UniProtKB/TrEMBL annotation:
Coiled coil: none annotated. Catalyzes the GTP-dependent phosphorylation of 5-hydroxy-L-lysine. This is Hydroxylysine kinase. It comes from the Eukaryota. GO terms for cellular component: cytoplasm. Its EC number is 2.7.1.81. It is an enzyme of class 2 (transferase). SUPFAM superfamilies: Protein kinase-like (PK-like). Residues 37-215 form the Aminoglycoside phosphotransferase domain. Keywords: Cytoplasm, Kinase, Transferase. The keyword Kinase applies. Belongs to the aminoglycoside phosphotransferase family. The keyword Flavoprotein does not apply.
């Protein structure tokens, strides 16, 4: 499949809810009255930042959330979204600065909604997470200390997740998932987007080194840890 085909397929799968539809989802599935909403950047899902109005007897709770609407393909795999949500809950309870998951009216972590997209009705899994204020790493000066802190946090996160257990954990092991670091070689089919220049040469070299030096070690590690899943 060409990169153009990939983009067309992604466009078909990505949600395209209007702000009014997103507000209706928050109100019907989570029971909050939306006072303000704005779209957030996303890749193949759709995200909205929402501010909710709370009644006087519920004062003190969060008032800002992120409504995450999964694409049609991911929505066909509710186990995957469920496990991701439980990972977020696990990390939040372990003290990490992660978003917490807001339960649906029915007490679940996700809800499947049908949305009129104009030409047809599509089904999407939706989640509501607490909004975390901050700045993306791309917008702040990066120095050795910040990189050290990021690395330390990543290592602590990795160690903590060793204690996470869920009966559907295996669904996270998607062999063809392009965002899985062990699947770096899958990027080769997108090299044409770089043209013929120095950037492409560097990327090709990184891919070669990954296949020669990293993949053999990853394969050994995967074989030795298979029984833990």
């Amino acid at each position: 499949m060409s990169s153009g085909d990939d983009r067309r397929s992604q466009a078909l799968a990505k949600p395209a809810l209007s702000e009014a539809q997103a507000c209706a989802v928050v109100e019907s599935e989570f029971g909050f009255q939306v006072s303000e909403i704005q779209p957030l950047p996303s890749y193949d899902d759709q995200n909205f930042r929402v501010r909710v109005s709370r009644p006087g007897d519920a004062a003190g709770g969060p008032t800002e959330y992120v409504l995450k609407i999964s694409n049609t393909e991911s929505s066909k795999n509710p186990d995957l979204i469920e496990v991701q949500s439980h990972v977020a809950v696990f990390l939040y309870e372990a003290g990490f600065p992660t978003a917490s998951v807001c339960r649906t009216r029915d007490g679940g972590v996700t809800s499947l909604v049908s949305v009129d997209s104009g030409s047809q009705t599509k089904s999407h899994l939706v989640r509501l997470l607490t909004y975390l204020p901050g700045r993306p790493i791309a917008e702040v000066p990066v120095g050795p200390q910040l990189l050290y802190e990021i690395g330390r946090l990543a290592a602590t996160l990795d160690k903590t997740l060793e204690e996470f257990h869920h009966p559907k954990l295996r669904c996270l092991r998607r062999e063809d998932f392009i965002w899985n670091l062990r699947n770096v070689p899958l990027l080769e089919k997108y090299l044409s987007a770089l043209g013929q220049n120095r950037n492409r040469e560097m990327v090709e070299e990184v891919l070669r080194l990954f296949k020669d030096e990293v993949l053999p070690k990853v394969s050994i590690t995967a074989t030795s840890t298979t029984t833990t899943f």
